[in-house]
Structures are given as C-alpha cells and as structure tokens.
Amino acid sequence: MKILLIDDNSDITKMLQKYMTIKGHSCTIANTGQSGLDLINNQTFDVVILDIAMPTFSGNDVIDVLHKSGKIKNQNIVTLTASILTGDIESVLKNKGVHSCLKKPIDPDVLLDHIQQFGNKNKA
Amino acid sequence: MLVDNNVIFYLLIVWAVIVTILLIRMRQKHIKHINELRGDQKRQAEQTDAKEKRQAEQTDAKEVSEKLKGIAKDEFSAMITHELNTPLVPILGYCKMLKTSMLGRIDPEQLEAIEIIEKNAKRLEALIADIMDVRKLDLNKLRFKIDDLSIGAFFSNIDSDYKKILDGKKCQFVIDPYNKDLVIKTDKARLRQVFDNLISNSIKFVPESNGKIEIGCMKENGNLVFYVKDNGIGISQDKQKELFQKFYQIDTSERRSIGGTGLGLAISKGIVEKLGGIISVKSDGKTETTFYMKFPL
Ligand SMILES: Nc1ncnc2c1ncn2[C@@H]1O[C@H](COP(=O)(O)OP(=O)(O)OP(=O)(O)O)[C@@H](O)[C@H]1O
Ligand SMILES: [Mg+2]
Is the CB of residue B65 less than 8 Å away from at least one CB of chain A? Predict the structure, then answer.
C-alpha cells in the first residue's frame, strides 16, 4: 500500500513510518500541512493519514484546499486527532469527504487494520 | 532487573519534565490567544462610528467576556488533551513494536520492562480520558450515540471480556441478563463504560479467595434496573453520600494500598443521568456493595 503520513510530530511520523515499512507498505512522510498538500497534488496515494492539529497550516486547511479543488473526491483520507472535541470535528470533516477520524494515541496495529480497506482500491 | 528499574525511572522523569514544559507552554499559548482576541475586539471597536462608539463598546465588552469564558473552557481543555495525548503516540507505538520483536529479538527481562512501561502509559491514557470525560460532562459536551442495545449481546460481551481476568483471580462472576431478547435504546459504549467502572471497583475489593461479583438487570415498577454487586468490604452509610463526587476516595487503612483517582463513580453518575437514569448504592457497610442504575422503560 502507498501511504502518505502528514504530522508535525517527527517522533510520531518516524515511528509509524518504521512500523508501516516493516509491515511491507511504502510510507512517505510530510512534517507540515503545506508539504503534505504538495505531495498529494503531485502523486496518488492509497491513503493519506492526516494529523488535524498542526501549526500554521493545519490538517483542516489541507482538507479545505482539497475540498475546494475537488481533489478530495479521489483521495482517501483518514484523520488523526488528539483533541477533546473529536465529535464536533468528525461531523464537519465527514461532510467534506474525509473517510474517518481516529483518536490519538492510536495503536499502530489498529491504524493499519483500519487503512487496510484502502489497499489497491480507489475512492468510491 | 536493576537496569530495567533505572530505565523506567528515567522514563518517568522524562515524562514528568515533558508534561511540565508542555503545561507551561500551553498556558502561555492560551494567554497569548486570549490577549490576541482582546486586541482584535479592541481594534474592531475603535473602527466603529463615534456616535455608536459608546454603545458598541458596551456590547462588545459583554460579548468578549462571554467569548473569553467559552474559550477559556473549551480551548484550554482541547489543548490539554492534545498536548498530553500526543507524547503517548510514540511511547505506546514503540512499546508495541518492541514487544512484538519488530525491532529485533528481545529477552524475557526486557519484555517485562517494556510491558511495565506500556501498562503505565496506558494508565496515563485512561486517566487523561477520564479527566476529559469529567470536563466534557461539566461543559455539557459529552456526546451520546443512542442506538438499539440487545441486553443478551451486551452481557455476553462483558462476560467474555472479564472471564479471563476474573478466572485468574479465582473470583466468581455471575451474570443474570433477565431477558436476553430485550432490546432497549441507549448508548452502548457509555453504558459499558459505567459497567467497566463499577466492575473495576468491585475487582479491587473482593476477597482473594471466594470473591464474587454479580451483574445483570431486572424489571421493577416499569423501570429497568441494572446492578453490579460484590462481596467486598462494603461502604459505610455516611460515605455513601459522598461517593459520587469528583476525586472522592474513601481513605481508610485497608483501602489506602488500592490505587485509583476517584473519578470512576463521578463519571458513571454523570453518564447514567445523561442517559435518563438514576444511580444509587446499597451496602451493609461491611461485606456487600451493590450499585443500581435505574432507567425508565
Ligand atoms: N464496590 C466497592 N466496594 C467498596 N468501596 C468502593 C466500591 N466502589 C467504590 N468504592 C470506594 O469509592 C471510592 C470512589 O470510587 P471511584 O470509582 O469513583 O474512584 P476510584 O476507583 O478510586 O478511582 P478511578 O475509578 O478514577 O480509577 C473508592 O476510592 C473506593 O474506596
Ligand atoms: Mg473506580
């Protein structure tokens, strides 16, 4: 599976990249929302794992841009958030075409299980 | 073993330092945000027409103070969860990878150390979740997903989840679902959370041999009453009233060694009430405790 992981916390991206690689997937990292967006605009990924709370250019901003350009229709996106108001965020994101909203801390096994559904499949 | 203890000790210190730094940073961010908001509102007010100025300022001031109150509550909690949960991602992730030998083989002593780190990190995770639930209950922001709940499935799930733990403790676990085919409307996950809190309390107090925990439900005057009963150490009459308060823990010598934060029952009460029910306790003060959750049918 071709995964893009966007999170400003490099300890998290390093850990998850290692995990996904060992499990046999290709995992590209972006540590800012902007660089992640650039990657999405130039390549296709089976799934993008996107952190919501990032400084300057947040996960929400990434989604807004993709939503406006219509690109969100052919990109599977799973968001991660460590915040309290998950419920509120979730409904807003789903309306914009985000597949799901997972809570941090997340067990890497659970995350992989969850994104397995996007393997070799394009967004319906 | 000495090395392992040192590793854990070191990790705990690092953890404490990180949390302290984060809390200070969060506080600064929070104050900055509020100051920014104050600045924005002030600038806005300056731009208004001179005639309307006095009036505008008055309403603005009111709005700002309301808004500030809201932000102080919401955003501060949001920040706290974010900052406390984030470091747990790599900690728990690496524990998992080390444990499953993804980063190379590990010997039993190292495995034990990793499992202790993992257990404590999970404890922190649960504690953060509890604190946030209390917060959300206070702010009236706890969300409920009301759905069909099959009583039979609900109790058989609890049975399979606790069977192993309780068998290991040689504690009897009796489940009486009353009517397996009964279906009610409630929030499955939240009701389960209440049961988890009550059962985890019972497990703490049942005797080491001949422990017994009974759970189930029954019909009573048009109500459905769930219960969790144990043959632990009981709760005296005067303590029963205070039990459901936040951070309340009964402090006696026989209980002191038993861990906890005193949030379980406060959260349970909050949840049961939001689901339209009443929670209560009955105990002889010595050997028996039963918690009841009554919902109108
Ligand atoms: N079944 C029980 N038998 C005897 N005492 C109990 C029982 N359940 C709760 N208590 C007492 O009530 C107090 C409050 O319980 P509560 O579940 O709110 O907190 P806790 O278990 O100490 O911590 P937490 O649930 O947050 O981990 C406990 O300290 C305990 O002494
Ligand atoms: Mg408890």
Answer: no
Q: Are A29 and A13 in contact (CB under 8 A)?
A: yes
Domain count, chain B: 2
- C-alpha span between B219 and A58 (Å, rounded): 51
Domain at B216, CATH number: 3.30.565.10
Kindly list the residues from chain A whose CB atom is less than 8 angstroms away from the CB atom of residue B132.
84
Contacts of A58-67 with C-beta under 8 Å, sequence gap 24+, read: A58/A33, A59/A6, A59/A33, A61/A33, A62/A6, A62/A33, A62/A36, A62/A37, A63/A93, A63/A96, A63/A97, A63/A98, A64/A96, A65/A37, A66/A37, A66/A40, A66/A97, A67/A96, A67/A97
Comparing CA positions, the residue from A15, A122, A7 lying closest to residue A74 is A122
Q: Where are the domains of chain A?
A: 2-115
For residue A108, give the nearest of B77, B93, B132 by CB distance. Answer: B93
User: The domain containing residue B253 runs over which residues?
Assistant: 147-296
Q: B200 lies in a domain?
A: yes
ipTM for the assembly: 0.91
Same domain, B152 and B215: yes
pTM: 0.74
Q: B288 in a domain, yes or no?
A: yes
Q: Architecture of A2-115 per CATH?
A: 3-Layer(aba) Sandwich (3.40)
Using the structure block, give the residue that is written with the tokens 């908001």.
Answer: B37
Q: How confident is the model at residue B14 (pLDDT cuts 50, 70, 90)?
A: low
